[in-house]
Amino acid sequence: MTVSRIPLYCHQCGGPLQANPNPNGGPPFRCLDCGQRVYLDPKVAVAAVVRWPDGRVVLLRRAQRDAAHGLWILPGGHVDRGEVAEVAALREVAEETGLTVELDSLLGVYTYPGNPVVLIVYLARPVAGELSPSREALELSLFSPREVPWDELGYESTGQAIKDMLEFLELDPL
Ligand SMILES: [Zn+2]
Known about the structure:
By secondary structure, this protein is α+β, with helices and mostly antiparallel strands. The chain has two helices and ten strands. About 25% of the residues are buried. The mean pLDDT is about 90.
């Protein structure tokens, strides 16, 4: 699980922030110098279940050295401020897989307690390009739902989105 990094300094004046000791309300942080109330926003990310015509899906093995390093995830990434989510999904899939895809449907929105990420997942299909991993991937591969390495998935949402894809398309559950 990704844990929020706690901001230590006020973005208005640079003063030190104090965490709100009251669990029942109020802003989570307050600047000790200027009184600025600081709220932490969620982080919006997009990903795609890219489904091959034969039913296999594209997964990549994450190269970044974080908690999901070496594990299999869906192609995706963060939405830039002001960016349209669907555009971000097309951009991230192209960057990470070399594929141009079309988004067929919204598959789901995935959030987990204590995790700052709001992940929007689309169902997509390839229309051009060839599978070629970027530097963000150790490996790119196609898996049928039954072949998915369930014990080596990077995030809870990775497996959930694949299961939701099966349900959405009214395919046999695993
Ligand atoms: Zn301040």
